Amino acid sequence: MTATTPKRRRGRVAEDEIQSKPEWSQIPEHTRHVMLCTGPRCVQRGALPLWKVLRRELLVANRIETTDGVLLTRSHCQFPCNLGPVLTVYPDRCWYRVANAEDAQRLVREHLIEGQPVPDLLLNGQVS
Ligand code: FES
Q1: Structural domain count, the chain
Q2: Could you list the residue range(s) of the whole structural domain that residue 113 is in?
Q3: pLDDT tens digits for the chain (128 residues)?
């Protein structure tokens, strides 16, 4: 058994030991923050392949981390697990169920590019 320092057991390391790049001090450009749940139940419902679809579609449209684009992040459980895969869009306060690649493509095109929420994918009804 190897000895570990108390600070390593707690998962915290000295600031100068943390990997860093200059760009990690900047908040990425974006208009909307999209969080795809990759918690355990959403992953079981197919969330991980949706991440690749979302990212690809946004890259093709040049909408990743641009002033009129999206900060795409993964989250842990957002709580309405039974309704997943769950994806949220802020500041629009839209909660979506994105069930497949076609839903993900529609969401990118209609909401994240054209700016119109996709009513039939919304979990929280029509958002004003
Ligand atoms: S695991 Fe996705 S909402 Fe709970």
Answers
A1: 1
A2: 28-121
A3: 445 554 555 788 999 999 999 999 999 999 999 999 999 999 999 999 999 999 999 999 999 999 999 999 999 999 999 999 999 999 999 999 999 999 999 999 999 999 999 999 999 986 65
Q: What atom of ligand 1 comes closest to residue 77's alpha carbon?
A: 4
Give, for ligand 1, the residue of 77, 82, 87, 88 to mutate: max count of ligand atoms closer than 8 Å to Cβ: 77
Asked, for residue 1, whether it belongs to a domain, the answer is no
Burial of 41 from C-beta contacts in 10 A (0-12 / 13-18 / 19+)? middle
* Residues flanking ligand 1, CB < 6 Å: 37, 39-42, 77-81, 84, 86
Nearest to 50 by CA among 90, 122, 108: 108
CA distance linking residue 54 with residue 60, whole number of Å: 10
User: Could you tell me if residue 15 is inside a domain?
Assistant: no
Pocket test for ligand 1, best of 44, 79, 97 (most atoms within 8 A of CB): 79
